[in-house]
Amino acid sequence: MSVSNHNICDQCLPAVDPGSARPRDEVADTGVCGVCLRIAEVFDLQALELYRSHGLSDEQIWRYVPRLRCSFVRNESTRYSLDDLHRIASTMKVV
Ligand SMILES: [Zn+2]
User: N or C: which end of the chain has fewer CB within 10 A?
Assistant: First the structure.
């Protein structure tokens, strides 16, 4: 894996980010965990943080924006940078 995988699953989350509240299932997506390398429901915490800084709710994240920069499942070629996600979030009208 040449690109760093920021995805993290439920089981690895407490070890990597102790004390942080587990995000809700709505904002997880299927992907390879960057820590244990299992395919699971994973979170991209930096992406979520970015979306929340734009005022997006969990439901808006679930419905309208990529929840992971990359799933890393098989040959997934879609790769967003945080800048890409920032642009996507900026186009969302938050009411
Ligand atoms: Zn894991």
Answer: C
Number of domains the chain contains? 1
Contact partners, residue 27, CB within 8 Å, separation at least 6:
43, 48, 58, 61, 62, 67
Expressed in angstroms and rounded, the spacing between residue 45 Cα and the centre of ligand 1 is 13
Q: Is residue 76 part of a domain?
A: yes
Structural domain boundaries enclosing 59? 8-90
| Per-residue pLDDT tens digits for 31-88 | 999 999 999 999 999 999 999 999 999 999 999 999 999 999 998 889 999 999 999 9
Strand partners for 31:
40
Centre of ligand 1 from the C-alpha of residue 18, in Å: 14
Within a domain: 59 = yes
